[in-house]
Design goal:
single chain, about 40% helix, TIM Barrel, about 290 residues, alpha/beta, 9 strands, two-stranded parallel ribbon, about 15% strand
């Protein structure tokens, strides 16, 4: 633990996180505490929690907290998950209502143990949120569903405004840090989403040993399948047992990638050290 703390202490100055504050943040924080709600914002110690909650945005995780995959960058527990909680979709919808969110982001663990990989549960959750919160827009950050388009279609049919699926890293490093997902499969997932007419979004982490040329290639690949929104942030190892950080990318380099991405035709590029997948998610619904 001391070693991990020492690593945190050596973070570059641009990785220092500001304490969250603000009236809207305080209201959401109190609601989360009072109603014992579960958000990735808190459990993942997101550095942007203050800004996002002040914007009326929060991220929920469904289908439990145990993943069937074991990606080398991810801090989520891995193993044999419990059966899905049938009451969870309604509770998520009620949570969105209680928190008075204008934009809700929903993600999940991978559920390769389920016959439909969790797709029907995803669809039910989206519909419940829409029913109770007709004025709230929804973004979903989905797994790859093993590339099965009939399962992706179930999510699309439920009607979220934005569907996100992360590439996570460059093609060369994908086998090293993603336990089952394949780079080309993820591109095919995004292609299917854009072909359906829904806004597609993706993201990658930097600092894993990628080159600038490889990052630009990811941008080219995403644009080639119609992706309109991309997030780029700094990778931070959750524990010492995870793949270590190879490099801390400077804010200037992140800005360079943002400029390149806009020039390539992305509607939105969120690129800075503390950016995470749902950063400024409420704005991305405008990526027509």
């Amino acid at each position: 633990m001391a070693t991990l703390l020492n690593e945190r202490e050596r973070l570059p100055r641009w990785m220092k996180m500001q304490l969250p504050k603000g009236e809207s943040y305080s209201r959401v924080k109190n609601l989360v505490s009072q109603h014992k709600l579960h958000t990735i914002c808190t459990s993942g110690n997101c550095p942007n929690i203050g800004e996002c909650w002040n914007r009326g945005t929060a991220t929920f995780m469904i289908l439990g907290d145990i993943c069937t995959r074991n990606c080398k960058f991810c801090g989520v527990k891995t193993g044999k998950p419990l059966l899905p909680d049938a009451g969870e979709p309604l509770r998520i919808a009620e949570s969105v209502l209680i928190m008075q969110l204008k934009h809700a982001v929903i993600t999940s663990v991978d559920r390769d143990d389920l016959p439909d990989l969790g797709a029907s549960f995803w669809a039910e959750t989206i519909r419940e949120v829409n029913t109770l919160n007709p004025d709230t827009s929804i973004e979903v950050l989905i797994p790859d569903f093993q590339g099965k388009t009939e399962l992706i279609q179930k999510v699309i049919d439920a009607g979220p405004e934005v569907i996100s699926h992360n590439m996570e890293t460059v093609e060369r490093l994908t086998p090293q840090i993603r336990s089952a997902a394949k780079y080309r499969t993820s591109l095919n997932v995004i292609q299917y989403i854009t072909d359906s007419g829904v806004i597609a979004k993706s993201g990658i982490m930097l600092g894993l040993g990628e080159t600038e040329t490889e990052v630009i290639q990811v941008m080219n690949d995403l644009r080639s399948v119609g992706c309109k929104v991309m997030t780029i942030g700094q990778y931070l190892a959750p524990t010492l047992s995870h793949i270590p950080v190879k490099e801390y990318i400077t804010p200037e380099q992140f800005e360079k990638y943002r400029t390149i991405g806009i020039e390539k035709g992305f509607n939105f590029i969120e690129s800075s050290p503390l950016v995470r997948s749902s950063y400024k998610a409420d704005v991305h619904v405008e990526a027509k």
